[in-house]
Amino acid sequence: MPRLAPTARIDLHAHSTHSDGTEPPAEVVRQASRAGLDVVGLTDHDAVSGWAEADRAGHEHGVAVVPGVEMSCSAAGSSVHLLGYFVNPDDTSLRSELERTRRSRDGRLRRMVDTLAAAGFPVSWEEVLAQASAGASLGRPHVADVLVAHGRYPDRDAAFAEVLHSSSRFHVAHYAPHPRRAVELVLEAGGAAVLAHPFASARGHTVPVELVEELAAAGLTGLEVDHRDHGPADRDRAAALAQRLGLVRTGSSDYHGAGKPNRLGEHTTSAEVLTRLLDRTGGQLLGASL
Ligand code: AMP
Ligand code: FE
Ligand code: FE
Ligand code: ZN
Q1: Closest ligand 1 atom, CA of 79?
Q2: N or C: which end of the chain has fewer CB within 10 A?
């Protein structure tokens, strides 16, 4: 088991072009090094395909990489994000669930693009595909990037405030498992599950306390408490809930490159908590050894 220095700087949540981040995994890792991080978690939405590149870049830049995935989930019609760390990427059940979600993402995004194009918005499916790595998890941010490139909106945020909003007439939902099922899949694949930004009300991601309790009973390991979408009161609530349910507290940037203002290392996770995640899973860090 690697020994993590108590002072290690650890950011457990970042996205690359394998989902809706704007930088390839190697660049995310290089930026992590520039930001003074010792450890970065690569947690693309519904995809683990970026790990190999992040591993190589970690060796090159002296950064350890936590292999992760942010699973899109749905509970009572609301979107919930579950982080899975140190999962076995070859686990058949997890793989097929991630594939199912990615396939559904493609179909729903195509429908959104078609209706937007029919309504006169400057976007085509080919342009959307050109925004991400081949086989990436496609999402609304890729459509936003095309609209921004055509000058229709100044940035992703502005597109999300209008046509890409979940309440917009253009919005189409995609398949996603219930978060309890996702926790089970992460555990079956040998990983540890952490609920992402549970009280991020501004993003429509507020998770009912009863659901967190249900997930804790199913084997959830932690709550992402320190995150920019949590205000001070949200953080206090999340920290108190984590303590009551015996869950670890993580913190992270949710970096998306140029796609969001979030900066690597703006929130971090303690070495003690990462050690708990490693011990619980028997997982291995990728990239540089610490
Ligand atoms: P989707 O996965 O296609 O439903 O789109 C949701 C993704 O869009 C999330 O992963 C967020 O990272 C991203 N997102 C949501 N709201 C915004 C926003 N206002 N600005 C930039 N990205 C956003
Ligand atoms: Fe995202
Ligand atoms: Fe998320
Ligand atoms: Zn995220």
Answers
A1: 4
A2: N
